[in-house]
């Protein structure tokens, strides 16, 4: 009991101590930033930095926790223009809602700007992850990732597994399902197969549950002492990396015995032969970040595509017609082939429109490596910058009736320069083709095998990530009218 009390007391003292130290550091940083900037008379983009330390963080979070977060950006764009200054998550941040500025920032990665992830994400993905790599190593590993997920590889190797695993998952669907959870299960299994050639099993399901805990820690204060969610996420990361270390060790032994596999891990082993070789820690961090990057994004897009289609019956009817025709032409063969994928023009419109409207990654953070002139302003060296894809995608200047789900618009758009759901420049998402194929195959099997009803009110929210509050419950019913 006494020990318990002493522990509690020291915990209390430590908490007070940490709070005081962090507050002092915050104020020192703010005073330093304010004085150096004003001393140099820098013409910053206009804006409001809100309250000391907190800035406009609460306004941003409360807007993004609703179905309609747009007023946060709209109000500032109206007042200050498409490039403005705000202060969120403890730092002054230049916010760009301008397509051209976003392109400029992303294309100057490594020269004028560099990627900048919150501390929580950086710790959880690991220091050797692609997301945190810089310079020539980043270029090399980004192109390695591209070469494992390019169109030829998808067509010749990955499509077969995508199709098989989607069908396998749908086999067990009956009655009421939580679509978001089912979609997450599908994309995790797909990614695990592509990275490590591992088919769904008890081990993969256990790993997925650990992974969900890791992702929950992404938007916490990265101090295990203060945040239980973050502490749990770090512990789960430890278990995930231990499990992956084991797989990597076993695969090295198999490889020495001459067993060859055709997956991302094999590509990483093969690039061992280049100038530098990768140790197991580097390989594991790399795998952790790829699992993170592909898993949540694609599954959320799958769910929201279904939501938008359910809310827009005319689009669903046209999509159904496209997929029923493909199925009718295939006779008894269930598996989709590349030619089938290439005959889904309206599906591509639905995928693009879902990506535009839902903006799973609403934008990305960068940090200025030097003073950078943008429009008539200067962004000082070290400043945080947020390129908002969401603001551009939902701007009426860029897309007519921008806030309405209208897949038909993509039948007319020939030059989608303002459309950047996968980012741009050297960090452009290497999984963009893979995501499109997975989404199309999923929609095909869902639509040709089931009809569904959405019976419960469910709301979209955008903080900490884009998702529906109740994980989108639907009631599915087998279709018997398709060949
Ligand atoms: C709908 C699905 C997806 C969306 C919307 C999406 C979006 C994005 C965006 C916007 C970025 C740029 C991040 C930045 O500039 O800092 C990115 C990076 C990345 N994505 Fe995706 N992604 C999707 C699916 C995938 C898939 C399936 C993979 C699997 C290979 C993947 C792997 C990656 C990786 C590894 C990066 C980091 C690239 C780098 O930093 O060089 N993504 N993604």
Short description:
The chain contains 17 helices and 12 strands. The protein is an alpha+beta fold and 483 residues long. The radius of gyration is 24 Å and the shape is globular.
How do the helices and strands line up, and which of them pair or pack?
Elements: H1 2-39, H2 57-64, H3 70-80, E1 83-88, E2 91-96, H4 99-107, E3 113-115, H5 119-125, H6 135-148, H7 151-171, E4 175-178, H8 179-196, H9 202-216, H10 228-256, H11 264-270, H12 280-311, H13 313-330, H14 338-342, H15 345-358, E5 363-368, E6 372-374, E7 377-379, E8 384-388, H16 389-393, H17 432-449, E9 450-453, E10 460-461, E11 467-468, E12 473-478
Helix pairs in contact: 5-10, 7-8, 7-17, 8-12, 9-10, 10-12, 12-15, 12-17, 13-15
Bound molecules: protoporphyrin IX containing FE.
Can you tell me about this structure?
With 483 residues, the chain is α+β, with helices and mostly antiparallel strands. The chain contains 17 helices and twelve strands. Strands 1-2-8-5-3 form a five-stranded mixed sheet. It has a three-stranded antiparallel sheet with strand order 4-12-9. Helix 8 packs antiparallel against helix 12 (280-311) and helix 9 (202-216) packs across helix 10. It binds protoporphyrin IX containing FE (HEM).
């Amino acid at each position: 009991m006494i020990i318990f009390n002493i522990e509690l007391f020291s915990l209390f003292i430590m908490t007070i101590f940490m709070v005081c130290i962090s507050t002092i550091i915050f104020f020192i940083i703010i005073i330093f930033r304010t004085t150096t900037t004003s001393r140099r008379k820098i013409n910053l983009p206009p804006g409001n930095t809100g309250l000391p330390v907190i800035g406009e963080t609460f306004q941003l979070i409360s807007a993004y926790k609703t179905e309609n977060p747009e007023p946060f950006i709209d109000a500032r764009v109206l007042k200050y223009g498409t490039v403005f200054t705000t202060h969120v998550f403890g730092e002054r941040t230049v916010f760009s809602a301008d397509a051209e500025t976003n392109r400029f920032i992303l294309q100057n990665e490594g020269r004028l700007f560099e990627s900048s992830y919150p501390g929580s994400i950086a710790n959880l993905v690991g220091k050797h992850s692609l997301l945190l790599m810089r310079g020539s190593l980043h270029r090399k590993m980004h192109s390695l990732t591209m070469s494992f997920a390019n169109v030829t590889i998808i067509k010749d190797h990955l499509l077969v597994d995508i199709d098989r695993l989607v069908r396998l998952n749908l086999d067990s669907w009956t009655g009421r399902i939580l679509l978001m959870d089912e979609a997450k299960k599908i994309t995790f299994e797909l990614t695990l197969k592509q990275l490590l050639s591992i088919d769904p099993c008890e081990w993969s399901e256990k790993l997925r549950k650990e992974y969900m805990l890791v992702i929950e820690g992404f938007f916490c204060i990265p101090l295990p002492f203060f945040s239980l969610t973050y502490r749990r996420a770090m512990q789960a990361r430890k278990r995930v990396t231990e499990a992956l270390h084991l797989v990597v060790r076993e695969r090295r032994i198999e490889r020495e015995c001459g067993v060859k596999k055709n997956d991302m891990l094999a590509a990483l082993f093969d690039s061992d032969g280049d100038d530098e070789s990768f140790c197991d820690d580097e390989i594991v961090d790399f795998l952790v970040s790829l699992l993170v990057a592909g898993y949540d994004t694609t599954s959320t897009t799958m769910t929201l595509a279904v939501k938008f289609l359910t809310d827009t019956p005319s689009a669903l009817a046209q999509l159904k017609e496209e997929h029923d025709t493909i199925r009718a032409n295939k006779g008894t063969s269930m598996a989709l082939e590349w030619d089938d994928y290439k005959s889904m023009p309206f599906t591509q419109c639905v995928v693009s429109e879902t990506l535009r409207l839902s903006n799973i990654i609403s934008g990305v953070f960068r940090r200025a490596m030097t003073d950078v002139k943008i429009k008539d302003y200067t962004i000082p060296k070290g400043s945080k910058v947020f390129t908002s894809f969401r603001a551009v995608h939902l701007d009426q200047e860029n897309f007519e009736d921008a806030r309405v789900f209208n897949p038909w618009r993509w039948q007319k758009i020939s030059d989608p320069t303002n459309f950047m759901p996968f980012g741009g420049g050297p960090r452009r998402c290497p999984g963009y083709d893979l995501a499109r194929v997975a989404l199309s195959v999923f929609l095909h099997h869902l639509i040709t095998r089931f009809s569904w009803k959405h019976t419960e009110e469910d709301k979209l929210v955008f903080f900490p990530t884009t998702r529906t509050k109740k994980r989108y419950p639907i009631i599915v019913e087998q279709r018997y009218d398709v060949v």
